[in-house]
Amino acid sequence: MKLWSIYLKLILTAILLLPATASYAQPRSTVQDILTGRARETLSADNLVQRGVEKIQLGELTEALADFNQALSLNPNDSQAYYYRGKAQRQLERDPSFWEAYRQGLLVRGTARLQLGDERGAITDLTYVLRNDPNATLAYVNRGLARLELGQTQQALTDFTRALTLEPNLAIAYHHRGFARHLLGNKEGARTDWDKAATLYQPTFRLQLDAEINE
Fold first, then answer.
1. CA 143 to chain centre
2. FRET partner for 118 with CA separation of 20 to 30 A, picked from 88, 125, 142, 149?
3. pTM metric for this prediction
């Protein structure tokens, strides 16, 4: 069986086993983006900035920030997007509850983008989360997965290691770091991580993990 097919099967099973603490609230704007497909609209960076400015004027600050982030993922040098994003942030940060909801929303949207195959969009969202909350373990794991998909294996390895620094018994991080090490040619390190993951996973999944690796 090819490594990538084993990898995908294990990810899907592992996600089902994530603890309840790994789930996050989904702000209204994030849910709407997913359901209406806004995250997949083919708007230019300029159009996104313009729409974001309009949303600031309407008081829809979290939605505006989402537009500015998406604009910057398309054009990282867009000075207007940076300016207006900072303006929206300053207004939001006056109310900590808004910022917390926005951070959680980005974490959810970044995960959704990863699942939909938008790895670069996922990295943009999750990097923003980590910039403001460097202890967001799940963001490191999911950004690492996105980087693996883009072939950024060394950066993915770094993300999984950071996640393990925060949560040393996080099985899914050992699991994914094992794949990163395997791709980088560190077979012994990969096996060590997979063995650790198998020990930490629930017994049923441990049997499946061992069977898949040895197949």
1. 4
2. 88
3. 0.55
